[in-house]
Amino acid sequence: MAVWQQNWPPLTAPAAGQPPAGWPLAHPHAGAVLSAAVLAVAYGFSSAAWAGWAQLALTLPVYAWVGSLFHRGALEAARHRTTSMDTLVSLGATVAFGYSAIATIALPGRPTYYDVAALIITLIAVGKYLELAGRARAGAAIEALAELQPRTAHLLARAASGQHGDPAHAIDIPAEALRAGDIVLVRPGEAIPADGELAEGAGTVDESMLTGEPLPRDKRPGDELTGATVNGPAPLVLRVARTGAETVLGQIMALVDAAQKQKANSQRLADRISAVFVPVILAMAVLTLAGWLASGAGVVAALIPAVAVLVVACPCALGLATPVAVMAGTGRGAQLGLLIRGGESLERVHGLRTVVLDKTGTLTAGHPAVVRVAALDGSDGLGTLALAAGAEAASEHPLARAVAAAAEDRGLIPASAGDFRAVAGRGVTATAGKREVQAGSLRWLAETGVDTSGGDHLAAGLAEAAQTPVAVAVDGRLRLLLGIADALRPDSRDGVARLRGLGLEPVLATGDTLEAATAAARAAGIGNVHAELLPQDKSELVAQLQRERGPVAMVGDGINDAPALAAADIGIAVATGTGAAMAAADITVVHGGIGAVADAVMLARATRRIIRQNLGWAFGYNLILVPLAATGILPPVLAAVAMATSSVTVVGNALRLRRFGKTGGHAGTLARRGAIRPAAQEPAPEGASR
């Protein structure tokens, strides 16, 4: 049973009946202060007559208040007829404190072990708080998704009225009050409040939250609209079909929630170990007490070696093995731009076989860029590009921004333009440099009377290379073709190769078209491609790969990746993406791409090795010293010293992680960025041309 997770409240908003937010923070702080005072009295004033009473007064709140979390956990385990790490912590502290209190009150002159009782509780409490501090609340992913839903809808008519309403007299109502059949106005730039169909109007909608792709989709009456996607420059009238949990966004939230709950129930390594370790130690303590009593020793004499067994076996080293390694690993990761959520994430790296990669924003830069300039009039095409940049300057379309950026990258000054006119789904026309400039699809130019035969063959080649062709005509003559694609991140190909070198099989999963996905995979060196996937499809793909191959990591950056990130054994989010993706992930890459993902896997594996070494040391130490304590060779005082030495050794071993990446390897590349490598990859989806 995952005892630590069960008995320690979250650091943020708790569930009903749990302590208030931030409550555990006071426990380790108070325990550390009081324990320091106990040590000062025990080793600085041990000969004073009042020393025992002072230690009793200082240790009592540590035992009763700070230790209450462990005592409750031990009682909870006992009610379920099992044992846990809480059982051993609680029992060890109780025996040490109880024996010392009896000695102080009724047996003057006997040695006391208040320092042992205080340190047992405080060290474990501090270690667990360090681990909790690195773990984000699962509900953050759900909250981030919920923030996408607009709060207000502009109601034109209720379903029962049978009317369409007047856009000039729309009534603002809470979005959750919408019902199927309602007619709603969606103004330019607003998020769509519910799922439904386009009843009136035409325009474009940014569906990147659903597909992950940057180019907006053209919408005509009768087309489906999805809640939380963003309307373009034209007002639309929506007929509501689904609201609340029935919407696509609601289903995504449900997928994320279910996946995180399933992941939280996974049994941790330390919990599996404690299920065997704790009963064995308790049995040895009982046998030690019984053996000494059977040999004729008095109760006090028999109790001392039994106490020594519990003290020397107290799980300070075992309890610190994971938290201090997690603290060192996450701290070093933060220095390298890798934010690791907690110890569970590191433990799940073990046995990882497959890495599923999103395309847009993860494998690629996430925005369109001009990767080819092909002049059709015998020139270098730069003059025509400057005219096109001037004509596109007033447009907010991603393709228009790509054209403007291409001119700027080449040091060109866009021509002054006027008489700008955008044709939805087709292109733009403007007067630039006293010349008529048209930029858009070849089909649209042909419809306006431009002879496009000279560019048809080249445009077909661009399309085959998964580039979106944008044609530019000047004064009615076709002069330039631009190939626009989503450029590959500079480290993607090398990063994919490094993942293979780590024994991981990369798989590409994207909502984009098969042609674009195949081109991106070919450029990055990936052979396994899954395209045109919805968010639930990606989550199902992760589940399928888990059944077929074992543990799976998912790397993504968009809202559409959140269910798969939560469902994967390890979710890795790119920090340039959405908050929902980062909240659902176990590891966030602050900068860099696939190369940083390889570094994250290497750091996680190194941290897990340290955890296993620490656990091995803790068990080896118990294997040697518990028999010595049981036979009376090791008294409780020396048992306490051995316990502290073991804890220091575990901490020192964990701190070796601070050197990760300093002796060569790839981790040092995390902070370096290079120019984006052009790669013919992403065409506009069907209906996204402009």
Please characterize this protein's 3D structure.
By secondary structure, the chain is α+β, with helices and mostly antiparallel strands. The protein has 25 helices and 22 strands. The strands form 4 sheets. A 7-stranded mixed β-sheet has the order 10-22-21-20-11-18-19, sandwiched between helices. Helix 3 packs antiparallel against helix 5 and helix 4 packs across helix 5.
Low-confidence residue ranges: 1-23, 134-139, 263-267, 667-689
Q: Specify the overall morphology.
A: elongated
Number of helical segments?
A: 25
Radius of gyration computed on alpha carbons = 33 Å
Task: Give short descriptive properties of this protein.
single chain, 690 residues, alpha+beta, six-stranded antiparallel beta sheet, 49% helix, disordered N terminus, disordered C terminus
What secondary-structure arrangement, pairings included, does this model have?
Elements: H1 3-7, H2 23-44, H3 51-66, H4 68-79, H5 85-106, H6 114-133, H7 139-146, E1 152-157, E2 171-174, E3 183-186, E4 195-200, E5 203-206, H8 208-211, E6 217-219, E7 224-225, E8 230-231, E9 236-242, H9 248-264, H10 269-294, H11 299-312, H12 316-335, E10 338-340, H13 343-347, E11 354-357, H14 359-363, E12 364-375, H15 382-392, H16 398-409, E13 417-423, E14 427-432, E15 435-440, H17 442-447, H18 453-464, E16 468-474, E17 477-488, H19 492-501, E18 505-509, H20 514-524, E19 528-530, H21 535-549, E20 552-556, H22 562-567, E21 570-574, H23 579-584, E22 587-589, H24 594-630, H25 636-654
Parallel strand pairs: 11-18, 11-20, 18-19, 20-21, 21-22
Antiparallel strand pairs: 1-2, 1-3, 3-9, 4-7, 4-9, 5-6, 5-8, 10-22, 12-17, 13-14, 14-15, 15-16, 16-17
Helix pairs in contact: 2-3, 2-6, 3-5, 3-6, 4-5, 5-6, 6-12, 7-9, 10-11, 11-24, 11-25, 12-24, 12-25, 15-16, 19-24, 24-25
